[in-house]
Amino acid sequence: MSDNLLQFLPPNLFDPWKKLKKAVLSKNRLIHVNQLFAVTHPQFIYLDNNNLTDLDSVLHRNMSSVETVQLSNNPFSKVTVNSFNGKLSKTRFLYLDHCQIREFNVNHFVSLHSLSTLDLSYNLIEKIVNQQITFGNNVELDFTGNKIKEFNAELPYNVKHVYLNKNLMTTVGRTLQFSQMAQVSLADNRIQSLDYEEFRGVHGIVMLDLQGNVINSIERETFTSIRKELVYLDLSRNRIRRLNGCVQSLSLLTSLNLTDNHIEGFERGEFRGLNELTDLYLQGNRIKTLGYEVYGLNRLKYLVISHNKIRTIKADQLPLSLQYVYVEGNPLQCDCQILSFLQHLNSTKNLKTDVPPCNPSNNTSPVPPAQCPDGCQCFCTNSAGDHYISVDCSAIGLTQLPPLFAAANASTPAEHNSTSVVIFLPRNLAENAFFSENAPFVIQDVVKGLDFSYNNLQSVEDARFPKGTKHLFLGQNIIRQPPTSILYALEELNSVTLSGNPWVCDCGTSGFKRWILSHSEFILDVNETRCGPDDQDSSGLANRAIWTLSDIDLCPTDVEVYVSIILGVLSFFLVAAAAMIAWTRYEINIKVWLYAHGVTWVKERDIDRDKLFDAFISFSYKDQNLVIPELINVIQKKAPSVRLCLHYRDFLPGNLIEENIIKAVELSKRTVLILSRNFLESEWCMFEFKAAHVQALKDRVHRIIIIRLGDLPKESEMPKEIQMYLKSTTYLTWGDKYFWNNLLYCLPTSSSPLPKTVDVNGVKQKYPVLV
């Protein structure tokens, strides 16, 4: 009776059919089915895709024979405690998907003890909290496509599968804690991170689907509680950059899906302990190199690394158990580094790929690659991890270099000067016939190894060797002129032979000799690299090892030039050394003398340019008859650019004395103490000394200049602070021979004399200015 336009059925319609097994009323327009199943209880009831709204009236009490109830796609808005309780005690399958149900309450299903599937997908449920699911037997709960933001329900042993796909959850939260489910799907939510606490106490999970979220971080210990149970883990379509070791030791895991994330690489031991892993999906990431982390997966069969940024694959990066490797969409470089992978493909029946790598059709270069020179052999070389092509042209009777390595000229096509060469690896179809085309593998790489030994080459001066050349064998030819400039240009050489050539030894050979001496550790035949037969420019040097010759041997006429240069250099260094010694021993005396004779640039740069005064003169008023005319007036006459702070002129009347003193010290670059008996007995003088001492400690600058005046007490009788200064600093003594030179040198100077007025807080003010 499905697929009709039925809107109404008479009550008790099925009463005469006591043995009715299946009632299929799907895809009609039924509004209600009151009393339709009051007497007859079919085993299978299908009422999906109708217009039923009253869920309580659909079923009746004691319908114990009903096994499956299909109520999908009806506009039910709620489930009540009377909808199923006492009605479906033995029902196993209940489908309520694609309705308009807004609430899930475990009490509405509490009597459904035999239920194994409850489908509430694609409804309008927003949260499930504080629920303990006790109904059912190994029940599968499907909440896919709702609007659930929070799921906080106790899921005991009777719940085996939970599907929460396509909801609005931002965290796993307590969804899984202390559960024992076998399958959990949280795909296509908004989960941002995973941590250990969210999986604490979880057991029994075999399949965990977290694809299609926005996960960007996973704690290392997240899956610890299920490390011996999890078999399938899907983390695809997230924003994961690093696994952080979170999948280590998942000992039963067979499938790991990391497709379409932001992974760039793996840490060492990333897949350690994945002893059962057979399928690894890494496509659509940002992986640049495969590394060796996959190699230890001894049971891996399928490796999908398509659409990454991998440029090369090596055979020793892949486990021997691998059967399929998918590489499409990677910028694979068909060079010598990938050769081992191609050889492995060529020699095994087991390993297959999705696309044929390194075919002639893959080459998109606008310029055809150079071919191996005629008569030579070209092959890949691996030297200390560096892969390149070596060209072996030894013992083939060459009288000149092949065009590929000759200097460019009008008759040589530009492409022949390329430093890249293509080689072909025949494909062994008998062993690996998984592609229809039988073209060989094509390898193109730079040339870094050259062997031209045992030929008849007479010159290589115009050669065009690749700059990255590592091996160059020129031994056993008839080359006379050393290729010095070429050898110096090849900075990456680490293996060279030069013997068996009749090298010219003259003034022009000195550069060649120096190159040999500085690179002797990788010249394999350095002792056999010798001068050729004597000629008029190299008399007596025949058959001598070039590295043993001196410059005088090679060019005797240069002796006088060398001697003159050596003597000139020695004289310069002797004069410079003498000047340095004199400056070191007499630096202060020299500076003082120069300053006394008008050379003021030798003074140290003033670091207190913003201070108003150059020096504050601190003295006892009892000494003023001597200090003012004999010291202060003389300083102002001899050095008018020195700005002096004088208490009788610059202290502000009305201010506290100690404030005037502190201000004077702060505004002065130096404090000059006229140390006399009167000074030591004056309380204010000692205060001025202490203020200057504090300022010097604060600025970390030597600011105090002491001038001893007259007879003083013994140092032991002086204040301890004065004793310390006299012992630790150099002081001046009034009347010494060089007193004035030393004093004027010690005093800082300003570029201009003291102004008549000064700007204080925006106001032009005459002296005193200590405000």
UniProtKB/TrEMBL annotation:
Membrane topology label: Single-pass type I membrane protein
Keywords assigned by UniProt, alphabetized: Glycoprotein, Leucine-rich repeat, Membrane, Receptor, Repeat, Signal, Transmembrane, Transmembrane helix
Cellular location(s): Membrane
Gene3D superfamilies: Ribonuclease Inhibitor, Toll/interleukin-1 receptor homology (TIR) domain
Record flagged with keyword Membrane: yes
Coiled coil: none
Domain TIR: 611-747
Transmembrane regions listed in the UniProt entry: 561-583
Keyword Oxidoreductase found: no
Chief place where the protein resides: membrane
Example of a GO cellular component annotation carried by this entry: plasma membrane
SUPFAM superfamilies noted in UniProt: L domain-like, Toll/Interleukin receptor TIR domain
Gene Ontology biological process: immune response; toll-like receptor signaling pathway
Entry GO MF terms: transmembrane signaling receptor activity
Domain of life of the organism encoding this protein: Eukaryota
Similarity section: Belongs to the Toll-like receptor family.
Protein's name in the database: TIR domain-containing protein
Source organism: Larinioides sclopetarius
